[in-house]
Amino acid sequence: MPQPIHPYSLLTDICQRHGATLVAVSKTRSPEEILAIYGRGQRVFAENRVQELVAKAPLLPDDIEWHLIGHLQTNKVRQVLPHVRLIHSLDRSSLWETLDTEAGRLGRTIDCLLQVKVAQEESKFGWEFLALREFLAAGRHLELPRVRIRGLMGMATLTDDRDQVRSEFRELAGYFRSLQEGSFAGDPGFSILSMGMSSDYDIALEEGSTMIRVGSLLFAPVAG
Ligand SMILES: *Cc1c(COP(=O)(O)O)cnc(C)c1O
After folding, report:
1. Burial of residue 167 (number of CB atoms within 10 Å: 0-12, 13-18, 19+)
2. Phi and psi for 9 in degrees, rounded to 5?
3. Pocket-testing residue among 10, 22, 48, 218, ligand 1, by greatest number of atoms within 8 A of Cβ
4. Residue-wise pLDDT tens for the chain (224 aa)?
């Protein structure tokens, strides 16, 4: 019987072909499950809840790079900052200001992605792109130098309609390019487009994703 291919191998191959980064979404997974993927070579893991991230990070190896991908309440910023390398969910100006202040207290900077809303669902957090563009045009963020904006993050609508998913990813990729040529022109650090999860990472990569966030597919038990 041939060995079944582990999803980690499949996903790292695909990411390599696209020059993209695989973020392992470890929410709800135990330290043992995380260590199993770590043991295959994965170093970038993400949680969507602050509480879970700060509880797990100290139990796991130091060379893990933790990302926060879920909604961040302003009053949790101080708690999470020491543990995270990249926050994907910068979705409002008040959070931007708090992140700048708290990073300053620690004498560091914090890398963030601007979460932009492209899904149809009302529930999804994120900037409306027009509001984001106005905020950037006003230049207020230039007074918040400890927050380094590295790119955009977005989620497509949860639907079986692959054409809709593709058009939402294409919209987000268009926003990404327009900011690369606009407000972030000349900033090579603005280079990350975080889009794609277990159900739609293939479409996201075709539409220009540079970072996919995969949980259920990666941690699924391998058949066979
Ligand atoms: C849970 C989650 C993912 C991963 O979803 P899967 O379908 O398990 O791959 C990606 N991004 C965000 C923001 C999430 O909350």
Report:
1. middle
2. -65, -45
3. 48
4. 777 889 999 999 999 999 999 999 999 999 999 999 999 999 999 999 999 999 999 999 999 999 999 999 999 999 999 999 999 999 999 999 999 999 999 999 999 999 999 999 877 789 999 999 999 999 999 999 999 999 999 999 999 999 999 999 999 999 999 999 999 999 999 999 999 999 999 999 999 999 999 999 999 876 64
* Diameter over CA atoms, the chain: 62
Asked whether 132 lines ligand 1 (CB < 6 A), one says no
For ligand 1, atom 6, name the residue with the nearest CA.
Answer: 215
Q: Please, are residues 75 and 113 in contact by the beta-carbon 8 Å criterion?
A: no
The verdict on pTM exceeding 0.85 is: yes
User: With contact defined as beta carbons under 8 Å apart, do 192 and 154 qualify?
Assistant: no
Of 97, 58, 61, give the one whose Cα is nearest residue 80. Answer: 58
For ligand 1, whether the C-beta of 216 sits within 6 Å is yes
| Residue 132 three-state SS | helix
